[in-house]
């Protein structure tokens, strides 16, 4: 059983390491003084590949997706932050990770909410139909009206939604671009949305 787990972990790390090697971060090179072990380098490269393709992922998701131990993930993320290759931002109970220098604060907040099921569903629904009401959003997402109201209040506090007259996204072009660009890292609904909306992207963070 252990061999199977280790094999899956190695396969996962190699897949993201290949991405990291092909598209390195803005920042220092991968080689670091005192870091000569192959496994450590492979893990570091995997994180380099994972974070740009899944920006805004919180610590637990990154750790689990890469099949890392908690201490292992913490160690390598700390090293990458110290090297100026990764940056993180606190988002409520989560710490989310981004490639350094790639996103502004509003992008980071937007990605954080796109990584939450109900806010992401609301954003995609409002991008599809800007006139959707709270009741329509609740029905489409299969959640209660209070759940929609709570998510709407959070999105408003983040500067992404205006509730003055119904629900209106304040940064639709930005949200559209982020939703399409990183659709594969969200869910099947985001992928389906991207298939229909990619031609509408104009914003380039």
Tell me what the structure shows.
By secondary structure, the protein is mainly alpha-helical. It folds into two domains: about 1-105, Winged helix-like DNA-binding domain superfamily/Winged helix DNA-binding domain (Arc Repressor Mutant, subunit A, Orthogonal Bundle), CATH 1.10.10; about 105-200, Winged helix-like DNA-binding domain superfamily/Winged helix DNA-binding domain (Arc Repressor Mutant, subunit A), CATH 1.10.10. The protein is built from ten helices and five strands, in the order H-H-E-H-H-E-E-H-H-H-H-E-E-H-H. It has helices at about 1-20, 40-55, 60-65, 70-80, 105-115, 115-130, 135-140, 145-155, 170-180, 190-195; strands spanning about 55-60, 85-90, 95-100, 160, 170. Strands 1-3-2 form a three-stranded antiparallel sheet, sandwiched between helices. It has a two-stranded antiparallel ribbon with strand order 4-5. Strand 2 and strand 3 (about 95-100) form a beta hairpin. Helix 5 crosses helix 9, helix 7 (about 135-140) crosses helix 8 and helix 9 crosses helix 10. The termini are far apart.
